[in-house]
Structure formats: structure tokens, C-alpha cells
Known about the structure:
This protein is about 40% helix and about 15% strand.
Amino acid sequence: MAEVEDTQDALTEKQSLLLDATRSLPHVRFIGGAGSGKTWLALEKARRLCQEYFDYDMPRILAGIGNGLPTAEKLDAIIVDEAQDFASEWWDGLLACVKDPQQAVVYAFMDGQQDVYRRWDGQGTVGAGGNGIGLIPIHVDENLRNTRKIAETFRCFAGEHFTPRTSSGVPVRMVPCATDAALDVASDCVDALIEEGWANNQIALLTTRNRHPLHQEAFDAGDAAVAAYWRDFHADAGEFYGHVLGFKGLERSVVILCVNGFKEMNRAAEQLYVGLSRARSLLVVVGDPALLTEAGGPDLARALARASVWEPASA
Length: 315
């Protein structure tokens, strides 16, 4: 039944061709019976409109504001973290806000292997026209966050110069299970790890497709709940439930990577790289080994074959 539903989901998402074909039409009505994908199309259209506003309209608004600022109010420096996720239009907007792009301090911190949104063009120049500047590459190759056993798991994604520098640490744990069971099994892992003696605020459970129910509950409750959700994370208030795409640049002592599918397989390797690299001391990978091999390739499969197979006591 899970395979049937996956096929149904894939067929529904192919309806996006209708939105591609009608993108220039302002007034349209779609007519279809039950199960024809109308609600999915409605939500997808809303998402596309919001994405266009964030990726294109807002940077242009920022550029307009920057160009209109008096020189005394303009910025002297720009620092961008996760710069591989920064669209070129946002660079144009930011550079319009500095006094002189050629003289301003501009530092970007990035990992081209974590380009899950496919926004970095691989070039070292940012900004357009007279505001464009070249960024000199400085390579930071040493891994200081993860134990060596964790670092060796995602080495295949990190590049040839990647060098782990910390202690060996405990073995990575692999919990094989069917993809549609991954959420439940990963939840069992949280309970089992707390039973072992790990503090709940040391643990993060990250999903690769659908949110964990506790994460979804916070997301559905509105902006105030989402703000409280992140405050709790930064305050180390308890175990954290999130998605790999929202955990870039963050870390916890223990990460349970729940591989419960991928929305887009062509971005799966980057998502795995993010998820596998968030744990400082203990990494637990939950999912179907065949899917992990398909998404991460044979090098990841070989790395996970060296992991310790674990069955949480609560499962």
C-alpha cells in the first residue's frame, strides 16, 4: 500500500505541468473530480507565488531601499552565513545597501556541497553590473565538530581535502527499517537514548521528508508557536524535532537522522550530507538501506556498512 501511495503522490505532483503551462494566465479555473489533484494544485500555486515574492520581489524592494538611502545611513560591511543558499537577487539587494561595494567588507561563509536549493552558480563573483565584486576563496578543510566516526560517514560528500581532527568517538548506529515506519522507529530511538542516559536536550531528531508530528504541531500552530519552538531549541529546553533543511548550520550532541523519504531525489544527497553532519558525539541513522544507497551512492553505503546495527529497546 505504501508503494501504491507513493505512486499516487508522484502522479499528483506531475500535475505541476498544468501550472507551468498556465503561469502567464492571471484568471483560470481548474475543473476536476474527486482525487484529480485540485487541492494539491491550489497549494502548489500558492507556494509558487510566495516563492516568487521571496526570491525576486523582496530583493528588488531591498535594492530600491538601498539605492535610496543617504550615504551616511548605508552599511560598511556584509557577513552572510550559508552563502550557498543566497540567491543572486539577494546579493544585488544587499550590495545596494553598502556605501561602496568595492571598498566594503564582504565575508561569505559557505559549503558548495550543501547547496540543497541550487542557488549558487559555482562562481566567485556576486552582484551584478557595477556593484559586482569577486570573493577570494579561502578553504577551511579541517572538521572540528564531529567525532571521526561520524565524519567518516559523510566524508564522501565533503570533498577530497576534508580532514577530521577530533577524537574517534563511539560507532555510528544504523537502524534499518521500512521508509514508512521510519518516523515511529526514530521516535522509539529518542526514548531508548534517554533510557541509556543521554539528556533529552542533547538529542535532535531530523526528518528528510515529512515533519515529525511534534514538529508539524508547532508549525501548524502559527507564528507565535514557531517562535517559541526555536526559543526552546536555543535554550536547550528538551529534545528537538526538525527537518534537515531547517537545521543547516546547527548541531546537537546526538542526532537521529530519520530518512522517511525525499521529495526530490536529485536533492537527496545534499540533504543527507546536512543531516549526517549535524551530530557532535553520536549519530543514529534510521531508514531503508536501499533508499540510502540510492540517495547517497555506494560510498555512503560502504560507510554505513561499518556502522553498528542497533535495535532500540523501545521498538
